[in-house]
Design brief:
This protein is an alpha/beta fold. It folds into four domains: 112 residues, Tetratricopeptide repeat domain (Serine Threonine Protein Phosphatase 5, Tetratricopeptide repeat), CATH 1.25.40.10; 130 residues, Sandwich (Jelly Rolls), CATH 2.60.120; 304 residues, Alkaline Phosphatase, subunit A, CATH 3.40.720.10; 71 residues. Helices cover 32% and strands 22% of the residues. The protein is built from 20 helices and 25 strands. The strands form four sheets. It has a 17-stranded mixed beta sheet that branches. It has a four-stranded antiparallel beta sheet with strand order 20-21-22-24, with helices on one face. It has a two-stranded parallel sheet with strand order 12-19. β21 and β22 form a beta hairpin. The longest helix is centred in the last third of the chain and has 28 residues. The radius of gyration is 26 Å and the shape is globular.
Amino acid sequence: MQCSYDELLNKTEEYMKSGDWGNGLIHAREAVSRNRICLKANYMEAVCAENRNEWLESYRYYSILFNLQHIAKKELVPEEELLGKINEIMDEAVRHLNELEFGQRIKYKDDLLDVNAEDKDICQNYFMRHENVENYWGIHTYFGKEYYIGRYGSWFPHYTESGNVENGVLLKSEIYEVIGQGRFTVIDDKSTDFPCVLPIVTNTDGKLNTIKVKGLNSGKDCSFLDGYSKAYSYLRLEEAGEIRAEEPAVFGKPVPLHHREGNKKLVLGIFIDSLNYKFIRDEDLKTYMPNTFDFFKKGVICNEYYSGSEFTYPSIASYWTGRRSTVHQMLNVDAHYPIPSDMPLLSELFHDNGYFTAKIGGNYSVAPQYGYIRGIDRFLYGYSEAVFHVDDVVSETIEHVKSFSETDQFVWIDIQDLHYVAGYWPMPISVQAHLPVNVREVDNEGGSSLYQTPSPHRRMVYGEQLKHVDSQLKYIYDYVLENYSEDEFVISLISDHGNGFNVDEGNYFICEQRMNVPLMVRGGEASRSIYCDEKMETVDYAHILTRLAGISDKRLEGMDGQLPVFFGGEKEKEYVFSQSLFPNRNYCAMILGKDYKFYIQSAGLVDHECRVSLENAYADLRNAEGESIEDEKLLADCMDIVTKWLGDFRKEKGA
């Protein structure tokens, strides 16, 4: 049986005190893997690795400790001392490098570079930097693969320096995996199937480029001028060919254009941030999202679908991993860790089963550096809704689906526009023109959408904004129905959490009104024209979507979710579970069983390592109708569930 986290830390410390650095390192590594934002665990791994002359590992974890101390605003080791240690360990690593044989030296040098790679920077996410970043438009390495980040959708840099912004906050980015760079490449049967589309960046340094393409089978050739600065162009190739360029070019991974038997032609996930399902249940889906209702009424609309987390960063990670928040550990939004590499992603399941995969939209919680580029062939990134409004997302989605209609597609799109309501930001003209002026008056308290108090005014604005989003989505619905038959697509609409201003006074922070989010699906077996009241969670989404797409993958077995009975599963869930582990706030959780409800709130606050004690926590057990009940066994069972899913983030008494 696995020991508790505090026991593991104590055991590691004992090995270190006795000088048993081998066992100390084994246990320290386990401690870091179980809570990677724990300062003490990272410190112990660095020290144990240092004493075993594992210089690169030691350097990495001393460096992580340095960053974590800045994030937590707490010093486990004084900063000056820690900087000295980091420099000392790096000197040892360089000395060791010089002692190696040539072949070993190359690998060690690569490993040395890797410890400081972009995807290892937990202190600052590359895709959120507001200042100009040198070589942002260019080659980058993420998770062992090379990608080119190109400008997208802005012609200013091509004509004038006034738009020469070097970051992803103000401009859209287009990202593909790179298969080569230079003045020559061959695209043949080893690299792709034909016909295919080749993404290519022909202008990497401000110079127009002459491109020559020669077919290897037909001998036909052509020559043309190309060169939108640091942005992708597309070449359709009907056969294997040679491509020559007068100036250096970057060649992306080709997109083969063919359908695979058994696959859907289009699997589209429409993610709408901050959509309370309770709002559209109470206020009427047909009123606020008439086009969405008309589309999904021929599919299934799930009434009892719940998010596992209260804000986007952990919630969306559960969608992509099928794991609960304390398992994927995307918890502290200030520590920019990626999703653990050993967790398969939804995008990888589809990519590995023959789909051309894409992610489109403005959502900085779904940044490539967080791991979301894994399994994605084409990544259109924008920092927020300010870069990708809903009309941009919709038009780009249709353009993408149309462009690659000859292959099977998995597409995830992010729509962030409901965030405008909580932030009191400018609304579309059509929204402003239909709102009485008094509704612009602030009638609630709170900053973030999560913690705002109830607001009739915000709800009215929210409803109008929802109508606007729905009017744009109609273009997607119409395009799908005009170009695909019912058995060729699977379209889903989902969200991550609700808003504080849509939660009634007197509710717990983690409650049904906040955590009940939409799941609407149409296509294939989901086309039943029916409502579903089976309880489901966001961790079940990967099981549902792959089942409807006809994918059977053993990696699903390692996820925390399951396939609901409605979609072909064997048994219903015993409960759904949601929790909040936000630093400097109370821990909160909710369990919804078949005939009971359970709520809990900690007495103390969650710390910077996302750990919390349940000592003196307030617990509330109710029946299905919401009436308080006393049932010691059921209460104990609920506490066991909370303890299980809080896991290593629970502090033991006295810790």
